[in-house]
Amino acid sequence: MLQPSKDKYGLTGYPQLGLWTSTLGLFAGLTTIVLYGVAGPEFKESLGLSGAMLGVLISSPHLSKAILRVPFGAWVDEVGGKKPFLILLGCSILGLAGITGMLYLYYPNEFDESLFPLFLLFGVLGGAGGATFSVGVPKTSYWFPKEKQGHALGIYAGLGNIGPGVLNYVIPLLIGAIGLAAAYLSWLVFLIAASVIFAIFAVDSYYFQLVKKDVNHENAKSIAKDLGQDVFPSGGTWISLKHSASNYRTWILVFLYTISFGGGFTALTAWFPTYWTLFHGMGLMSAGLIAAVFTIYGSLIRIPGGKWSDKFGGENVAILSFVTMAFGALVLTITSDAYVSFFGMIVIGTGMGIANAAIFELVPKYIPDAVGGASGWIGGVGGAGTLLIIPILGAFVDIYGQIGYARGFIVIAILSVLCAIIAYALKLNTQKKNDRGTFSP
To answer: Where does it mainly reside (predicted)?
Structure first.
């Protein structure tokens, strides 16, 4: 029954294809958040940067990531996800090409601090791929029914987010084997190839395909609903942004995401290679491997985290996750031992990964008719946390010296406790409204 309807309207694709192409796009695009993190110590030494300046360079890709996530996430509610994905991936290709060209032209003999502004510029441009996260959330969400949102988004974010971890491990290996410039060239080739594959196979959900065929909103919604689509946009880009912005729960989720992911997971993904190299004295390849463990593990645990959120409720899972984050951050704050630090890293990665799954399980629940807009605000404003956290971590080093690499984690510990309290308050408020029978998104 379903297939004839698809054929009748010339529709293509299916939920699993929508999920896996979005995951591929995120995997490739999100690698750009570690444009400089993978080789942070090399850039610090060659460019003669202070700890704070290194933090600014490492965080530069996160500027465009944060700014672009808001409009591009909301734009999905108007045009679907494929077009925004391709524009963002194209910007990242240009930025990474600029960095690669700079390395071939100037590294190592002509490297100095005068090149810092250009590297910042290309870092900002290249970081556009990080904005694919808020595009892929609604693109994936619109393919699946509400009861499968946590599971689908857990797979999307879990597998997609391992991209930076893989690069944290692979790029140092390539640097050792073929040199810094050639390693970045290899990264560029991969990004182009992944973008081409996405362009060929990615497809938007049935509603957007119908709208592009000039079927009006209500008819498109009715047809897509018969085909299994369960979540729909309420309007265009600005309507989605305005509607989601007027819902106070959006801003609660923004803050929780800021600490767990924007200022937490992505910040540490970019910071850990430098932390393990300059604080624990490890080689670049060993530090990259350990940082990759954090990123891949913290990403993959989002998959069961999404299932647990569907089963036990996003609020409950979030509370426990933020408590776990606080404990891991405290361990990292007080220890200089590499083995204990590794344990603390795994603990904080566990909390961050599961917290992210819980937060996005709540998006379709609290803002069901503006998922794209809400995802844009959450991913964009929340993603800006990296712009603050990494320079703060670098500043702790400037102030306290070597031990500052450890002491900086106290900031994350304090913010994690605050998030646990906020998540608990959100749970109580939701329970009260449910008890009165007045809860509405």
So the answer is: membrane
Chain Cα centroid distance, residue 102: 27
CA distance 184 to 169: 13
- H helix runs in 107-202, sequence order: 116-126, 132-141, 149-160, 162-178, 180-201
Mean pLDDT of the region 7-19: 86
More confident of the two residues 336 and 45: 336
Strand, helix or coil at 66? Answer: helix
Distance of alpha carbon 227 from alpha carbon 217, whole angstroms: 15
Quote the domain boundaries for residue 328: 12-432
Tokens 């409950």 belong to 316
| Tens digits of residue pLDDT in 352-385 | 999 988 887 888 778 877 777 787 788 777 777 7
Q: Specify the length of the chain in residues.
A: 441
Judge whether 239 lies within some domain: yes
Number of C-alpha atoms within 13 angstroms, CB side, residue 364?
27
- Res. 428: pLDDT tops 90: no
Coarse DSSP helix, strand, coil percentages of the chain, rounded to the nearest 5 percent: 85, 0, 15
Half-sphere exposure of 278 (CA within 13 A, CB side): 26
Q: Tell me the torsion sign for CA atoms 342, 347, 352, 357.
A: positive
Burial of 36 (0-12, 13-18, 19+ CB in 10 A): buried
Per-residue pLDDT, averaged over 85-102, amounts to 96
- Quick count: other Cβ atoms within 10 Å of Cβ 109? 6
- Residue 2 placed within a domain: no
In a domain, 334, yes or no: yes
> Phi and psi for 406 in degrees, rounded to 5?
-85, -45
Peptide bond into 117 cis (omega under 30): no
Return the CATH number at 19. Answer: 1.20.1250.20
> pLDDT-derived band of residue 3, with 50, 70 and 90 as boundaries?
very low
| pLDDT 10s digits, 271-302 | 898 899 989 999 878 888 898 899 889 888 98
Number of domains within the chain? 1
What string of DSSP letters covers 332-383? HHH---HHHHHHHHHHHHHHHHHHHHHHHHHHHHHSTT-HHHHHHHHHHHHH
- Residues 6 or more apart whose Cβ sits within 8 Å of residue 47: 57, 111, 112, 113, 115, 116, 119
The answer, yes or no, to whether residue 408 has pLDDT greater than 50, is yes
The answer to the question of residue 5 being in a domain is no
